[in-house]
Amino acid sequence: MDRFVVRGGARLAGTVSVSGAKNSVLKLMAAALLAEGTTVLANVPDILDVTVMGEVLRRLGCDVVRGKATVSITVPEMPGHEADYDLVRRIRASIAVLGPLVARCGEAKVALPGGDAIGSRGLDMHVAGLIKLGASVVSEHGYLIARAPRLVGAAVWLDFPSVGATENLLMASALAQGTTIIDNAAREPEIVDLCVMLQRMGAHIGGLGTSTLEVQGVEALHPVEHHTVPDRIVAGTWAVAAVMTRGDVTVLGGRPEHLEMPLDKLAQAGAVVEPLEGGFRVAMDRRPTAVDLVTLPYPGFATDFQPLFLGLNTVAEGTSMITENVFESRWMFVNELVRLGADVRTDGHHAVVRGREQLSGAPVTAHDIRAGAGLVLAGLVADGVTEVADVHHIDRGYEGFVEKLVALGAVVRRETAPVEPWLG
Length: 424
Ligand code: UD1
Hints:
This protein is α/β, with parallel strands linked by helices. The protein has helices at 22-31, 48-59, 85-88, 98-105, 124-132, 163-174, 189-200, 232-244, 260-268, 306-314, 334-339, 369-380, 392-395, 401-407; strands spanning 2-7, 13-17, 37-42, 63-67, 70-75, 82-83, 107-111, 136-140, 143-147, 155-157, 179-183, 204-206, 212-216, 225-227, 248-252, 272-276, 279-283, 293-294, 319-323, 343-347, 350-354, 359-360, 363-365, 382-383, 385-389, 411-416.
């Protein structure tokens, strides 16, 4: 039950490096299941979710070894096919083993993940897609059970460009018989990364980075070595931190071409944004101007940036409107920002933020990864001390967050909270 204790007022300056994307590496780890033998992933972030996903794969009979920024996964000829609730509820992304397991083993039994702090997050498109590919799918005793002796290619039209459904269907169809078309597919850089790895494993995939993916199934895939794409959400977090603290930060490993919308919003807020060899620089010398934003699937403005930019708007000059279209209840953290003195009102998909000159430090609680990071950034510009509790959420997605903040000049430390006396 660790917490971060942040003293506001410091300006962030210097260089920070960004490692591989959480939202990519977790799916690349699942994709390893598609081939017998040892797959080696590089540029792997040292975060909690990678540890938990490694445990999911171990329970499926794989040998998982973590090295310095690497993970090697040795998959047996026939992996197990059951992922239990105990692990799935800790990491929703473990649903990504569903497609590979049914394609490889003919059967997959994956616990239903249940709700979380940012919305109901259904699985209907994953299920409908697998059924189109010829699987039978039932939900029993808290598990999704998919069976198919061999999947058969089909045309699948997604109701919404779901990241998780696109990935599951890509991995399943790579070993299906015949051709699969995934239309209205998600186009996130992490999906392109997965396609590139699958191609190198021997899959035939066309339309990378577009909303129509064509997969010609093959009989078998082989293991590969693959370098994970940099984490654009972490890179963007450092950019927002630079602007909020009126600092000057060079983000190494961040790819500006994956961050066009958020970097453009920061420029609108008044920042200098400069692409560099191997990264970019963001500098700010005044109070930011409020910016409106609307979340949409990539290349639209990513929902994962919404809590960070909402935090920025709380100290900006002017009033902004934020519209959340991807997750229906991603406002829980707003009450925490209000504890810091923010002026925010939400109504359905919309939030109206009236910028304040200054926030005021207080104890707050992280409810998910990005909201947690957003609260830490708010603490950096609040008057006095902000204590952010439940930082295990932040540890799920940010490698060495406190150490990197301190290296940029922030005054922040991790504290392990004593166990409450009444809990023994
Ligand atoms: C992934 C990312 C997450 C990001 C999100 C949107 C990972 C581990 N997580 O989550 O950080 O915020 O993409 O960019 O990669 N939906 C359905 N039925 C389905 C599938 C999705 O209704 O079958 C809904 C969800 O409830 C949600 C929306 O579609 O409202 C988007 O979900 P999706 O794109 O699938 O996000 P995730 O893959 O869960």
